[in-house]
Design a protein that fits this description.
This protein is α/β, with parallel strands linked by helices. It contains 15 helices and 15 strands. A 7-stranded mixed beta sheet has the order 4-10-9-8-7-5-6, sandwiched between helices. A 4-stranded mixed beta sheet has the order 1-2-3-13. A 4-stranded antiparallel beta sheet has the order 11-12-15-14, with helices on one face. The longest helix has 24 residues. The chain is globular, with a radius of gyration of 21 Å. The mean pLDDT is 96. The structure holds pyridoxal-5'-phosphate. Pyridoxal-5'-phosphate binds next to helix 5. GO terms for molecular function: identical protein binding; pyridoxal phosphate binding; transaminase activity. Keywords: Aminotransferase, Pyridoxal phosphate, Transferase. Its cofactor is pyridoxal 5'-phosphate. It comes from Kitasatospora griseola.
């Protein structure tokens, strides 16, 4: 009888001591009714917050009709979602692949498409990147600790330095570096890869790696290198997509057109499991049987995603994200003037990172973890970069956060810093 054993001994992975019961907007409530502002939007996926009423209604109505049909059949929600995804994507992305189960399998599909299109094998990704946790995407992600336990890795992935200006790999400064971090990719292709590079996969703003916003011109330089060498440029917008940066996609903000965008997380609005690969016509050509997952194109999730896109497409919605994001950024920069342990405040829209440093300006991961832990006592759910191995607190509340709620979040952060990080 399993009832006698503690739940912690039955669940394979570690769970926190907090037991949550319900959520509404930016708040998650525990079993005792205590409210926490979720600064991480769940796993950065609740773009519209907990239980958005329009999403819940769309899912309820769809559940009454049809929860699932195999994705070879057409259904109304999937038809609507496909049309809407094409309408909101950069104009060169006109094809939608929905038969994926999340961000990782979307990224794997993008790699397969690039391989089929180019006839080449290899992949280039950035230091500190995170692209998922399947075997291929574990190998693609730019962190040694994620790969460390596994004896078998996928060959043919070259990791290159990321555009982290604050701690530049090449010890340069952004005003005079000539974008070495982009230009040197040519050397990596010529000397570190086999030369058979199918695609470069990049998060336009690093999500897990530390909320690193690339300098002006970086993504455009990647576009040029890809064009010169016939390489497919993939933007992993699993975190940056669906309004997070104040634009539907970060590609719109940077004015760079990738050949493929992968999207997941925020597409589900209030937590529906849905993901997509958006491609140009030239990338169409991977037959259905080569990349297809049972819950891809799920009808219930499609109803949620379609409604999410409808809401995020409303003209006032992205303006709201930009305005609240700017307000939050201003308040956090102000906070940094009083608390020198905040070494950098950076981000776009509602995707913000606070980099924490010790008294000598070096990354302070223990302090970052401590603050995230103690945040719960102050009614804040905080997550850190690089699965607790990094020194960045991620401030990415649901996009529906109001200015007053953003102020409350900052007030609580100030109390937390005053108590724990002077
Ligand atoms: C940028 C990025 N890509 C891909 C993934 C993987 O997505 P999923 O967990 O849905 O497979 C994540 C998840 O954290 C992510 O942050």
């Amino acid at each position: 009888m399993e009832g006698a054993r503690k739940i912690e001994d039955l669940i394979y992975y570690q769970v926190s001591e907090y037991k949550m019961r319900h959520g509404e907007g930016i708040h998650l409530y525990d079993a005792d009714g205590r409210a926490y502002i979720d600064c991480a939007s769940g796993t950065f996926n609740l773009s519209l917050g907990y239980g958005h009423p329009e999403i819940v209604k769309a899912m309820r109505e769809q559940a009454d009709l049809l929860v699932h049909a195999t994705s070879t059949f057409r259904t109304e929600p999937v038809d609507r979602l496909v049309r809407r995804l094409v309408a909101v994507s950069p104009p060169n992305l006109t094809r939608v692949h929905l038969k994926v189960s999340g961000g990782a399998t979307a990224n794997e599909g993008a790699v397969k498409m690039a391989q089929v299109r180019t006839g080449r094998r290899e992949v280039i990704t950035l230091f500190r990147s995170h692209h998922g946790q399947t075997v291929l995407t574990t190998a693609m992600s730019g962190e040694a600790f994620r790969r460390a336990p596994f004896p078998t890795l996928v060959a043919g992935i070259t990791h290159v330095p990321d555009p982290y200006c604050l701690r530049c790999f090449y010890r340069q400064s952004p005003d005079s570096c000539g974008l070495l971090c982009a230009e040197r990719i040519n050397d990596f292709i010529d000397h570190a890869s086999s030369g058979s590079v199918a695609c470069i996969v990049v998060e336009p703003v690093s999500g897990s790696g530390g909320n690193i916003v690339p300098p002006d011109g970086y993504l455009a330089a990647l576009r040029r290198i890809c064009d010169e060498r016939g390489i497919v440029l993939v933007f992993d917008e699993v975190q940056t997509g669906i309004g997070r940066t104040g634009h539907m996609f970060a590609a719109d903000h940077f004015g760079v057109r990738p050949d493929i965008i992968t999207t997941a997380k925020g597409l589900g609005g209030s937590g529906a499991q849905v993901a997509a690969i958006l491609t140009s016509e030239e990338l169409a050509g991977l037959d259905g049987e080569y990349h297809s997952f049972t819950y891809g194109g799920n009808v219930l999730a499609a109803a949620a995603a379609d409604k999410t896109l409808e809401i995020v497409s409303r003209p006032e919605f992205l303006a709201h994200v930009r305005a609240v994001g700017a307000h939050l950024m201003e308040r956090l920069r102000d906070l940094a003037t009083r608390y020198p342990r905040i070494g950098d405040v950076r981000g776009l829209g509602l995707m913000i990172g606070l980099e924490l440093v010790d008294r000598d300006g070096r990354p302070d991961t223990p302090l970052t973890l401590h603050l995230a832990h103690r945040g719960m006592d102050h009614g804040l759910i905080l997550r850190t970069s690089r699965y607790g191995r990094g020194n960045v607190l991620k401030i990415r509340p649901p996009l529906v956060i109001t200015t007053e709620e953003a102020d409350l979040l900052c007030d609580r952060l100030e109390t937390l810093f005053a108590a724990e990080a002077t």
